[in-house]
């Protein structure tokens, strides 16, 4: 599980609109501005991170969407912060159904076994503090499932930085 989490905003109003435009409206240009806000909101976590890792999409979803919004945000945060971004240290091996509309328990079950650290990536993660990047935190199920895989893969610590969160308690 991740240790700490930070987000720029609550997932409502303008923040929700920005995420939807980026994710579903092909507004990739918004990624840079969103990443700038994430870099500011997550400054403490970034200062302690050795590596940025975006939450990966399953190959089928990546093919359908044509880009991974978490990877887009992570690359921009990396450019702004100077912390390296590794898009190959975590893979999504299970094609999960969309999380929208699922309960907390259903989300956790849906993501069980969804992520894996490839053997070749384990030396890159060994003993490192990883900052996991995603667009939205809802229940924390995705962040927790991805963090568990990263920790099993050798990471020393995993924190989570997202653009928006559903709950004020995530920060």
From TrEMBL:
Family statement drawn from the similarity comment of this UniProt entry: Belongs to the ComF/GntX family.
Signal sequence range: none
SUPFAM superfamilies for the chain: PRTase-like
Phosphoribosyltransferase domain residues: 74-169
Coiled-coil stretches noted in the UniProt entry, renumbered to this chain: none
Protein's name in the database: Ribose-phosphate pyrophosphokinase
CDD domains found in the cross-reference section: PRTases_typeI
Top-level taxonomy: Bacteria, Pseudomonadati, Pseudomonadota, Alphaproteobacteria, Hyphomicrobiales
């Amino acid at each position: 599980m991740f240790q700490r989490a930070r987000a720029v905003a609550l997932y409502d109003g303008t923040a929700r609109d920005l995420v939807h435009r980026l994710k579903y409206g092909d507004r990739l240009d918004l990624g840079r501005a969103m990443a700038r806000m994430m870099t500011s909101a997550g400054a403490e976590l970034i200062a302690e991170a050795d590596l940025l890792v975006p939450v990966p999409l399953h190959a089928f979803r990546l093919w359908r969407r044509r880009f991974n919004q978490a990877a887009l945000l992570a690359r921009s945060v990396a450019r702004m912060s100077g912390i390296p971004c590794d898009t190959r240290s975590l893979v999504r091996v299970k094609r999960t159904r969309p999380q929208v509309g699922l309960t907390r328990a259903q989300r956790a079950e849906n993501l069980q076994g969804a992520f894996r650290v490839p053997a070749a990536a384990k030396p890159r993660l060994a003993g490192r503090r990883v900052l996991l990047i995603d667009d939205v935190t809802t229940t924390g199920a995705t962040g927790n499932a991805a963090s568990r895989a990263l920790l099993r893969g050798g990471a020393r610590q995993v924190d989570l930085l997202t653009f928006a969160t559903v709950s004020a308690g995530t920060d």
